[in-house]
Structures are given as C-alpha cells and as structure tokens.
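So, can you check these tokens?
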Amino acid sequence: MNKVLLGFAICFFTTVNSFAQEHKTASLEKFPVNWEATYKEALKKSKKEKKPILIYFTGSDWCGPCKVLDKKLFHSEKFKTLADNDLILYEADSPRNKDIISPEKLAINNDLQRKFKVRSFPTLVFVNHKGKIIGYKKGLILTEYYYPFIQSVIENY
C-alpha cells in the first residue's frame, strides 16, 4: 500500500511540477519595445523628440516581480503603442549574473540606481531630457494601474 501511495505521490508531483515551469513563448516577442542602448542616447533622443524617458530598474535574471512586469506590461501591444508614440525607454538592469551585460553598462546602471535612490525592484523612473525626475513608481501592481500613471506623466511633460 505504501509503495502505491509513494508511486502516486511521485507521479502527481512530477506532473504538477512540469506544468508549473515557466515557458518562454513566442508571444513575448510579438510586441518588442525599443530600449535605448545607453542612458546618454536616451537623453539625447528625449531632447530631440521632446518625450520623457522611462528608466526601468530591474533584476532581469533574479527578480520575480520584474519578470512578471516585463511579460505583462512591456510585451503588450498597448504598451508598445504608447511607448512608440510617447516615450523613450532605457532598461537599467542589475543582474546577479554579471555576464549578461557589459561592465561599463553595469557601472552606469549602478550609478543611476544611486542617483535616483532605487532600493527595490521593479522601479519605474520617469525623467526629462535633463535627467530630472518627473515620475516614480516602485514595486509590482496590477498592469492596468500603470497606464493611468504613465499617461499622467506624459500629459504633464
């Protein structure tokens, strides 16, 4: 009897575990957004196009809420349309695996993290072309609640 229960438990947990794994799907690439390569480029583009900069502070390889926000907000059609029309995007990543980004970019991202006093991830910081904060949102909230906040930052820019 114990062997049957043990066999059933192993089958059950194996099945549950296989369905619980994260699967990266092609849908994430359906609506890719255009992140600027450097913060300096983002500032120049912001000045030229007269758009605010959204700096996304993330821990891309370890932060669970960041992964959720990335999937549900940044890879949506609604956000892509909004970003293409009204925002300049810069991702300030702080991964645990330091091989993901260059040491120079990591140093710049760490400087930005200190400058804007980012202590938790994910954090969205909106700045003007001079680098002055015009909006700040930290933590993960329902995706739909980000849009009114982003829209208010854009309208007040």
Notes: The two ends are 70 Å apart (CA to CA). Residues 18-28 have pLDDT under 50 and may be disordered.
